Amino acid sequence: MRRLLFYVRLWKGYMRIGFLILTQYPADTVIWIISMLLREASGFLGVVTIAAVAGGLGNWSIYEICLMFSLCAIVEAIGQAFFDNAWGIGHQVRMGRLDVMLVRPASPFIQLLGECFHFQALISMMVYVGLLVFSVLKMNLHVSGGMLLFLAEFLVCGTMINSGLYVIFNSLNFWLVQGNDIAVFVQTCREFAKYPLSVFPLLFRQFFTFVLPFGFVGYYPAAYLAGKMGASIVWQMPMAALCVGGIAFTMWHLGVGSYNSTGT
Amino acid sequence: MSQIQVEHLVKEYKRKKNPEGLIASAKSMFRPEIETMQAVDNVNFAIEKGEAVGYVGPNGSGKSTTIKMLCGILKPTTGSVRVNGLDPFHDRMKNNKNIGVVFGNRSVLWWDVPVIESFRLFQTLYEIPEKRFKENLEKFTEIMDIAPLLSVPERQLSLGQKMRCNIAAAFLHDPQIVYLDEPTIGLDTESKASIRRCISKINEEEKTTFIITSHDFQDIESLCRRIILINHGKIVLDDNMQSVKQKFNQKKQIQFEMEQNPWHNGEEFICQGVRVMGTTSHSLKLEYDLEQTDSMKIMTAVAKGSEIQDVNISGRDIEEIIRDIIRKDNHIKRSSDVM
Ligand SMILES: Nc1ncnc2c1ncn2[C@@H]1O[C@H](COP(=O)(O)OP(=O)(O)OP(=O)(O)O)[C@@H](O)[C@H]1O
Ligand SMILES: [Mg+2]
Question: In terms of DSSP bridges, do strands B4-16 and B78-83 run parallel, antiparallel, or are they unpaired?
């Protein structure tokens, strides 16, 4: 409990520094928001165009696709805001910057994440939340307490799965010199998760469920909300999140254990 | 038990052999040839609380590697390290509360924010009570003379200013042990002197243990009473500074300026334990062995032959002594390698 309070205070301290950095480079902030919106939207526009022309994809309507996309993008935005330094693992390891974190009395992982925030992502998240509300209204879904609870569960589990996968693959940098390439490849795979997985062959679907469970950051929860899937997702999602979290935790710890610093 | 106890410490680094030629490079992508090198090779020492130890050796001898194992960054390949009875690698968090580290070439501050903000975050990290933090902040800003720098972001500081802020940062949480890996690299003489003063003061007042690596022997000489010399990962010498000087400084040089040198182009100056190093018509340079003679005897002998105008006695300083020891050690190693 005391430990938890310590980390809450520490996290606040890191956020303060992150915020100070943000105010130092205001122009960067604007550019960053625009580029991130474009990055997410570019994949999306492709799907939507196809769906609009074909009047949907499989049995998915265009609004259902919008819903899926917004779920996917919200989770990514949260990851960018708070956990983006998972992408910095490679750099930190190669430059030996981990040395500094390892001599302080706090978890080096928390310190790593605290090094870099993109609060700007919270602004782009607003856009996606708007899209979410828009699609829910268009789909005439009944907004209930249960649905809000499910969304809250999704935010936690989805973020864990999404960012956890990034941590797993970026941790390869502890052993490989070009580990970043693999992580970028994984992120590219994630583009598929913006399509309704039901249109793909079974093997594909299984891959995005059991190997890279990106299905849980968009397709499955959207299918559940749209009434295309049973309630089993309610417990499957946390299971997947725990698995990914566990593997990410193990990978990181193994990595730190075999960390060899650099010559100084 | 000693505060720091190091036993049979070994660290091996694995390195891919760099292949020559494109084809060999391509082959090595799949089956790399790995060579291991022992950066630290069976090192033993014990350090008591309040000691100030100079850890010296030539480039690549394994100093930084040892320090990194002492503060828990690297896992020893074999052997053990105990700091206050803890294993710094496995009980890292606990150990980290009690240590301060200064890396001469790696800053612990945040690049984009004013230095004071970094210090504030250290307060949270090390859970320093507000009152204590204020006192320490005041004390070390004064000692390090960084008061005007506190509101400046690190990226706008000069190398030496950065270093001074980093050193102050290492002391904010009252560490029991402070590791300094080349703390004076790139500093001007004035800053070096003030850092030395500060470290000696803390060492005396707070009984903080110091382990310092540096290539500047003035640092070592003014700060440390004990010196550990490492070469090719092995400890060559671990002794008191004073006794090192005595043991290895048996020869001194003495130089005379005089009216007329009677031993120039004439008969040789002869005196037991003395070797002539050079003569001119007005000066005489001698080297003598402290065990066989002393400077008074030589001066008397010289004064008999001519009127002395000036005398200059010089011993080898610690830097030269160390250089000699390393040269001998390298020589021994090389000849035993051949055999
Ligand atoms: N991360 C690493 N990976 C592989 N080899 C390393 C690594 N760090 C150091 N070495 C090797 O280990 C040896 C000892 O390095 P170390 O950094 O401990 O030297 P040092 O005594 O600190 O030297 P210097 O005075 O130049 O700082 C060197 O030969 C170096 O090449
Ligand atoms: Mg070094």
Answer: antiparallel
**Numbered residues of chain A with Cβ closer than 8 Å to any chain B Cβ:** 6, 9-10, 12-14, 16-17, 20-21, 24, 96-100, 102-107, 257-261, 263-264
What's the mean pLDDT when you consider all of chain B? Answer: 89
Cα distance between residue B113 and residue B133, in whole Å: 19
Residue extents of the structural domains in chain B: 49-246, 250-315
**Has residue A154 been placed in a domain?**
yes
How far is the first Cα of chain A from the last one, in angstroms, to the nearest whole number? 38
Question: A116, A16 in Cβ contact below 8 A?
Answer: no
Q: Is the pLDDT of residue B31 over 80?
A: no
List, for residues A183-233, the tens digit of each pLDDT value: 888 888 888 877 888 888 999 889 999 999 999 999 999 999 999 888 899
Angstrom distance (rounded) from CA A31 to CA A52? 30
Q: Does A57 fall in a domain?
A: yes
CB B205 within 8 A of CB B221: no
Q: Tell whether A166 is covered by a domain.
A: yes
Query: How much is the average pLDDT of A130-150?
Result: 92
Residue B173 pLDDT class (50, 70, 90 cuts): very high
pLDDT tens for B292-332 read 888 888 888 888 888 888 998 887 788 888 888 898 888 88
CATH no. of B250-315 = 3.30.70.250
A–B interface: beta-carbon pairs under 8 A: 77
Domain range for residue A168?
Answer: 27-258
Nearest Cβ partner for A13 among B106, B124, B153? B124
Residues of chain B contacting residue A14, judged by C-beta atoms under 8 Å apart? 121
Distance between Cα B233 and ligand 2 center (Å): 12
The number of domains in chain A is: 1
**Beta strands B177-181 and B34-47, pairing class:** unpaired
C-alpha–C-alpha distance, residues B161 and B176, integer Å = 25
Q: For residue A144, give the 3-state DSSP assignment.
A: coil
Q: Which residues of B touch A264 (CB under 8 A)?
A: 64, 103-106, 181
Confidence tier at B338 by pLDDT (50, 70, 90): low
Numbers of helices and strands, H then E, in chain B: 11, 13
Q: How confident is the model at residue B29 (pLDDT cuts 50, 70, 90)?
A: low
pLDDT of residue B321: 86
CB-CB: which of B60, B112, B181 is closest to A21? B112
For residue B127, the chain A residues in CB contact (below 8 A) are 6
**Tally of CB atoms within 10 A around A164:** 26
CB contact under 8 A, A100 and B103: yes
Asked if the B49-246 domain carries CATH number 3.90.79.10, the reply is no
Is residue B287 within 8 A of residue B275, CB to CB? The reply is yes
The model's pLDDT over A34-48, given as tens digits with 9 standing for 90+, comes to: 888 888 777 778 778
Q: Does a structural domain hold residue A128?
A: yes
